[in-house]
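Table S2 (continued). Query chain:
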Amino acid sequence: MAEKATKELEKMQLQEKAKVKYNEWLKKKRAEESEKRKKEKEKEKERQAELQEKKERAEKIFNEWLRHARNKPRPVLNGYGFPQGKSTGRPNGNSYPAPAYCNPIPWKPVHIPPPKEESALTMKNSKRSVSCQSHKFSPTVIYKPKSNLCVQSSQRK
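Corresponding output:
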């Protein structure tokens, strides 16, 4: 009986120690979770603040662009197809747009000096002789197909 009582007492002490350790572990885990949540909230606030700052900067730049866009010069309508600002293309008002770029320097062909007559004659002669030498003529071969219906029909008659 004494042994049973001591074993039960030891069991109870072990269970109490286990509960105490579990409670300590549980407190530690809850503290870690709360710290993790705080960090996440801080990151979210930081991200929101960054987005807000970015939005404000973009809006400021847009408003500045809008103010300057009013003062920029407009394209001239007195160009190709738009004399006095009115379209003269087709009756329905469609016409080709004004060219975006016009080359200020007109195109000029490259000057090639004419060949001298002496060298031209020799070149013509040399070209003929080279071209004649380069071509080799093969003997003519007459090809007769074996299964020619016309030939067979004439042979049968």
